[in-house]
Amino acid sequence: MKHPLLFATLALPIAYSKTSGELCRGTGARAADGNWYCTEVWAITYRNISQTGAYNRTTSVDPSTGICGHERVDYPATGPLTPLFGEVSMHLRGPMNVSQLAAYQLPGEMHTLGKRNTVPFYNRRRAMNKRDTTEHSTQAPFKDSDQIKSPRKRTFNATTSCSTHTVTTTTVVTACDQEKTTSAARPAQNTTYVGPPLPCMSTPVPHASQTDLSSPNCTCRDTVALPTLTEHLPNPALTISPATTANKTNIARRAAPDWSRVAYYTSTAPAQATGFSFLANLGDPQKSGTFDYAFGNSLSYVTSDGGRVASESLPFSGTLDTSEREIAVFSDKSCDQDCPYWRPDATSHFGWSGSSKAFFIEFQMDHYQNRGVDQGLISDAPAWWFLNAAIPRVLQYGSDRNNIPCSCWSTGCGEFDAFEILGNGEERAKSTMHRQGNLQGGDSNYFRRPVGRKLKFAVVWHYPHITALVLDDGFDFSTALSDDRIQQLVSYDADSWTHSLFAIGD
What phi and psi, each to the nearest 5 degrees, are found at residue 498? Predict the structure, then answer.
């Protein structure tokens, strides 16, 4: 659910040390107009992303009607329902060459994932049990010529002969003249209900007329009460400021164990991956994932170049040629009864959950223009970002036939853009926190795009913050990292001019 032209307009004050503006003033270049402009930094910390709030969670996707159902979820400041503290998926857009990729977690936040079913590369067709072939007996035959192109990010809205499908600056074009009825969706799989009955949240609708989103168009379910959800918080003590979170938890800091590498990828021939699965929005019922005329292609396994659907989990080659190629990276654990709701028949995997997790990458982003003829697609704009894993498992791009966003993205279930090029051929990579309807924003400083060179980069969740940072060239993606090493990476020096601090919450 990436929106490269959606700029954050929420300016939040920084409570501690230098503000982003002061960093720009201190190290930026002064232009002829007398203004100071932002500068390259080595690290950006988004301080205190932990607040209470709410979003609409998807409970059903029905291809026979083209309608998605939702329920309102009110979340606390901690726990698996809190945006980005629950499961996240990782996303890559070209042009990009990836040399290494690694995911780390603390042992206390690994045990649940460790019990899941691993999908080995090459030797299994599907992450789920084999589909009953009779389940698709009413579905229109799938042909490559019928396939809806995987939706991409555009700079304008497009209108087809039936309707306009828009989520902010993302346009989803469907084959409206070829809509066909498919079999009904399966019931919601292990959907968790939280809190008292509440109406759905209002979501933006691009029509001029007002729509009551608590009406049947929202297809919202009532919620039922469950016991309070809690989550182990292994690192309550903060390295940014002792006043930042000391009052947020009474849990005493204990010596933390090492962070274990739970997934690793290298492109060194032959490409190898442990703990990762590589997917894309290319679903084909004959291979993996699914397709229908209401919602297009679901997630599926993908060939090593990210360009075609595959029948089984394959290692990534490491190269995404242009911005026309995107892949979604999940764990190698297939969804089971404990996985939150996912689109029926989609290839679905667990992401990585917890308030302490870290992702490391080595990549290069040389300049290559798109090869396609569609000039609406963003070109030469690589990116690395994270989504609430429920978004791609349901529908990363698009709305239902009531023009209501199908996934929880539009109501703020969480996206973090770690390293994103926003314009064609830009040399500056920005970062942004998207949580619509909740606190969000983006730091004004930037990272330098690695053109003609490799760059090692990391994103570290260290409760209740997220830090994105450039690593030393010699940094080793070893099988374990000590907690002290992680704390050194994310520690903030109030006198630093290369580490920016951006306040999301107090």
Answer: -120, 0
As a whole number of Å, the end-to-end CA separation of the chain is 27
Phi, psi values for residue 336, rounded to 5°: -135, -160
DSSP single-letter state for residue 176? G
Strands 276-281 and 299-301, bridge-based pairing: antiparallel
Low-confidence ranges of the chain (pLDDT < 70): 1-37, 110-112, 114-115, 120-199, 201-256, 374-376
DSSP-based three-state secondary structure for 90: strand
DSSP string, 120-132: -SSS-S-SSSPPP
Tell whether pTM > 0.85: no
| Positive/negative CA dihedral, 59, 83, 382, 9 | positive
CA distance 106 to 483: 9
Please name which of 387, 395, 399 lies closest in space to residue 341, comparing C-alpha atoms.
395
From CA 130, how far away is CA 347, in angstroms rounded?
Answer: 11
Q: 291, 275, 266: which is closest to 346 by C-alpha?
A: 291
* Distance from C-alpha of 356 to C-alpha of 464, rounded to nearest angstrom: 9
At 158-169, the pLDDT tens digits run: 322 233 222 233
